[in-house]
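Um, can you check?
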Amino acid sequence: MAQRFLLCLSVICIALVADVRTPLEAQGQTGPKYKFDPDWPKPLPNKWKLGGVTGLAVDKDDNVWVLNRPNDLTSIELEAELNPPIADCCVHPPAMIHFDKKGNVIGSFDAPQGHGMDVDSKGFVYIGQNTVRKYDPKTGKIVGEVPHVPETPEGQPFVTPTLPVRTPGQGSAGPVAGFITVPGAGGRGRGGRGNNPDAAAQAAVQQDAFRKKYPRGYFFRKASC
């Protein structure tokens, strides 16, 4: 009985695949093909080393913008910044780097770290981090910003992200800091909340109150850029 069931299931799967592929084949269309290019991008200038990449976008000229997190780098990765340097690599990169089609760096500017970005048809760059900031791609200056609610879900005043002060050769605890539960830490850090029912319940109450106070659509009604 089991063998008959598996045979019938296989026939159904084959029929479904054939049904999905038939329209494309009938129209003479094929899916896109991708090829890995190990030489893209070219080696970064100025001894830069990328932090975690949190955003990619292709502009109107088919060049690529890359948003990375320089603050993810640890001190051992930034020894070329020391005076005198104690290693050949590396230094903090700017958060936003512009590459051409061949992988050469053609521009960059620093910005507060974000969690996603995009580029519009005129070349303006947008970075999201609690709010959305609009940048001039040539100067790196903010030319617009979506207003944010005046406080965080925890009741703290909202502060517009600013460029961090970076000490040469001094890095952070790394990109996973705060996401991993440390034994004996009493549930501190983002990784600890899930193991602490009281903290999780308190966070849920805060989020619910925050959403009632600032309902969905508040950001769009306030948007001005």
Notes: The longest helix spans residues 2-26. The chain is about 25% helix and 15% strand. Confidence is low (pLDDT under 50) at residues 1-20, 185-193.
